[in-house]
Design a protein that fits this description.
This is Leucine-responsive regulatory protein. The chain is α+β, with helices and mostly antiparallel strands. Helices cover 34% and strands 19% of the residues. It folds into 2 domains: 41 residues, Winged helix-like DNA-binding domain superfamily/Winged helix DNA-binding domain (Arc Repressor Mutant, subunit A, Orthogonal Bundle); 75 residues, Alpha-Beta Plaits (2-Layer Sandwich), CATH 3.30.70.
Length: 155
């Protein structure tokens, strides 16, 4: 899919919305030097084009009991379309899996798992992840400290 042309005003709107998704339209309009109606039209256009996919509240993982982040590399025994789709459908069932990426290289998938602690991760790993048929290798790396985390794509 081709990228969408964004002018300076669009980029400024998107930059602000990435940091303050709940900003009132009149404040946003003032920050980007547009009338509220023009600003709202631009935001609606960006939503309709799919540039803005939605709005979320970013939670503090520790405060909601999900302070341990583990990245898991998964390799499948077989890589047929059916095997890949079966694995994808299985991981969609688990809220602990906050991201699942199909990757190139030695591994087939990279998962981001968020759980309370190592005991919860071990339970998830044994009861759910390794119970999925067709796994060849599962390699886990627990995060000791997060250096950077952002959801911003444009600044």
């Amino acid at each position: 899919m081709a990228s969408i042309e964004l002018d300076k005003k669009d980029r400024k709107i998107l930059g602000i919305l990435q940091r303050r998704g709940n900003i009132p339209n009149n404040e946003l309009a003032e920050l980007v030097n547009l009338s509220p109606s023009t600003c709202l039209r631009r935001v609606r256009r960006l939503e309709e084009l799919g540039v803005i996919r939605g709005y979320v509240a970013l939670l503090d993982a520790e405060k909601v009991g999900r302070s341990l982040c583990v990245f898991v590399r998964v390799k499948l025994d077989h890589k047929s379309r059916a095997d890949v789709e079966r694995f994808e459908q299985e991981v969609l069932k688990y809220p602990e899996v906050t991201e699942c990426h199909v990757v190139m290289g030695e591994d087939d998938f990279l998962l981001k798992i968020m759980v309370a602690d190592l005991n919860d991760f071990q339970k998830f790993l044994l009861d759910h992840l390794t119970a999925i048929p067709g796994l060849s290798t599962v390699i886990s790396s627990a995060v000791l400290r997060q250096v950077k985390s952002t959801t911003e794509l444009l600044v």
